[in-house]
Amino acid sequence: ERALVWFRRDLRVDDQAALSRALSAAQQVFCVFLLDRDILDPLPRADRRVVFILRSLEELHRQLAALRPGAGLIVRHGQAQAEIAALAAQLDVQAVLTNHDDEPAALARDATVRDALAAQGRQLLSFKDHVVFERSEVLSASGSPYTVFTPYKNAWLRRLTPADLRPHPLQPQALAASPLAGRIPAPAEIGFEPVALPAQLGVGSSGAEQLLDDFLERMDRYDRARDYPALKGPSYLSVHLRFGTISIRRLARLAHERMLGGLRGAEVWLGELIWREFYQQLMHHHPQAMSAAFRPAYDAIEWERGPGAEALFAAWREGRTGYPLVDAAMRQLLASGYMHNRLRMVTASFLCKDLGLDWRWGERHFAEQLLDFDLAANNGGWQWASSSGCDAQPWFRIFNPVTQSEKFDAEGLFIKRYLPQLSKLPAKLVHAPWRARPEELQALGLVLGRDYPPPLVDHEAARRRTLERYAVVKTAR
Ligand code: FAD
Fold first, then answer.
1. 81, 106, 129: which is the final residue of a domain?
2. Which residues of the chain have pLDDT under 70?
3. Which residue has the CA at smallest separation from atom 21 of ligand 1?
4. How far apart are CA 174 and CA 446, in angstroms?
């Protein structure tokens, strides 16, 4: 028996469901990663994720080779149906094993690969790996999928047994040597620029390991630190969860053990991992909500359009709104491909409820820029902020960007990291510099309109317009 393991969002060897299954069932196991042209070709040529993937593949190859001399990762660049079927035929495997990817485009791709393999008399087998509970594994007592987080979380925790978090064993004896393995292309060879990655995020399983070590020291304080972007509060593991360079079962196990030991920080962090699964199962049950409002009434909202709206959108993307916390956050995103969760909420709310722009515009920008971009989580986050989601911020609740700034970056430390021109402003001026007298600002080396823009919109006026704009949803459910 020969098998081919097709790696996708599971770039590790330990506790990897499809790899584990193949190694226990077959005598000869080959490994492949496909640089999928259907995904890559439409991307901008400078994309941090491509560099993250390629570097993680190098590490994955080294790990496989260390398990068995001559073994390693085969990398192909092309279209999934043709490449996977051709490689399966070349290696003459009976089955291709992979892990579930429930994004609508991935499901469609897998269906075509399954058909192509079936035409050759081979199988495509797929396993749960990316989440602890998937699809319909957590349902309400009446058997329907949850659309509200807290009851979902409670049901998730009730359903959890030690077996759900047990790692998949790794028995490497069946890993097969292959002369095809080990040629990992450089970004330029597949048409991408070798952009730099933020050093602190690390790549591959070893990068994830370092972040986890660091976070384990801080996990018990997570509940108190996580909302303050100037602090090292969260784990920064999102990119590793996205590409599977760390196992979700392992993270959930660590958090769950500490939670049972009474650590509040671990309990809150586990709750975030459950949010991730909440949005994954929502995508499975409501794939239509990946491109339209989860609550259809919200698609009747009339967003700003035309050149004026385009200009507002450009100012938001480039961090030129005149609201320092929003601008610092947008610059963090451009500079690093990461944005703190509190700031994702603030900037997303600002786009829909201060600028009156369609949440899908913001969703698309985040999808292009975020290293950790994940369709289910990003769409969930945007629909939360725009109030069109299933368990969302109520439509009439509108974040005040200045109050958020005073509350979560009181000293302006985060703001000043990304907006050095505001570095001399005292805490009382840094959240809303336009409220100071021009002479006062000038004495601190700042001229509004020259060094930093005046506010793009007046929040109070924008708030009133938003309440009118959203009135269309009042009558609908
Ligand atoms: P931690 O606070 O350490 O959380 C641990 C893990 O839990 C994260 O790595 C992530 O996998 C998961 N998680 C945390 N919060 C959420 C959440 N609200 N929804 C789903 N999963 C969560 N997260 C993404 O992974 N990809 C996205 O594309 C994404 N887009 C977002 C867009 C908006 C508008 C908003 C409001 C949130 C978005 N999030 C997204 C969720 C959250 O902001 C990030 O997961 C988090 O900031 C990542 O940083 P961390 O790993 O340090 O998080």
1. 129
2. 476-477
3. 276
4. 66
Nearest CA to ligand 1 atom 48: 238
Please name the residue whose Cα sits nearest to atom 1 of ligand 1.
234
Cβ–ligand 1 distance for 378 under 6 Å, the answer yes
Number of structural domains, the chain?
A: 3
What single-letter DSSP state applies at residue 384? H
How many residues are recorded in the chain?
A: 477
Q: How far apart are CA 382 and CA 395, in angstroms?
A: 13
With 0-12 / 13-18 / 19 or more C-beta atoms within 10 angstroms meaning exposed / middle / buried, residue 324 is buried
Mutate to test the pocket of ligand 1, among 214, 365, 372, 374 (most ligand atoms within 8 A of CB): 372
DSSP state of 337: S
Question: Which residue of 211, 242, 272, 378 sits with most ligand 1 atoms within 8 Å of its CB, as the best mutation to test the pocket?
Answer: 272
Clarify whether residues 425 and 448 are in a common domain. yes
pLDDT of residue 476: 59
Decide if the complex's ipTM is over 0.90.
yes
With a 6 A CB cut-off, is 374 part of the ligand 1 pocket? Answer: yes
For the stretch 376-425, pLDDT in tens is 999 999 999 999 999 999 999 999 999 999 999 999 999 999 999 999 99
- Find the 234 Cα to ligand 1 centroid distance in Å: 10
Strand, helix or coil at 3? Answer: strand
Assign residue 30 the CATH number of its domain: 3.40.50.620
Distance 71 CA to ligand 1 centre (A): 35
| Residue 190, in any domain of the structure | no
Q: What is the pLDDT of residue 474?
A: 83
Q: Which residue has the tokens 């200009």?
A: 311
Report whether residue 359 contacts ligand 1, using a CB cutoff of 6 Å. Answer: no
Residue 211 sits in a domain whose CATH number is: 1.25.40.80
What gap in Å lies between CA 387 and CA 398, rounded to an integer? 10
Q: Which domain holds residue 122?
A: 2-129
Closest CA to 204 of 310, 355, 327, 61: 61
